[in-house]
Amino acid sequence: MLTLAKKSETYFRDYVRGGGKENRKRQVSRIVEFLDWVESTEKVISLHGLGKRHVIGFWKAHRHFSDETAYKYWLGIAKLWQWIGKHEEPPAPHKVQTLQKSVLNDTVFTEISTTIKAARASRNLTIQQLANVSGCEPLLIADIEAGKTNMLLSDILRLFEILKIKFSFSTPNFTSGTPFSPQ
Q: Which of 127, 136, 171 has the alpha carbon at shortest distance from 156?
């Protein structure tokens, strides 16, 4: 247990005394894990120095959490926020499963850039939110949406998966002459 967790022990002691003891002990262990992560990566030494940036960094570092586990951690962080007097809720984890369904189900796009941009806009996601969910850099997503061609197929496929974009390839009909025409 690092310094931030030790500073929180008074909150923990009072919290574990009431209610369901086992659940509260697990919740405290999640809070301690969050505080230890923040202290070891962000070098925060005061509880009141915690902010949204630290929570977002925690979610980025723990993308592998299932929705249920991430929600349990979020509840613990929300309790910590309450203890230290934060007036807003902490940022919730952005998970692939929580994205809204597309309203562009039957729309056909021929360019990757317009496809990704339209799917992102239909879900009311900013480039930063999509970057948080996908693990891609925001600049890369902006470049893809701008039509820049220097990108990895794995990045595009990851964005397609997150945005639930279905795609198919069609080959031209080569029976009527040459497949390519000079321009």
A: 136
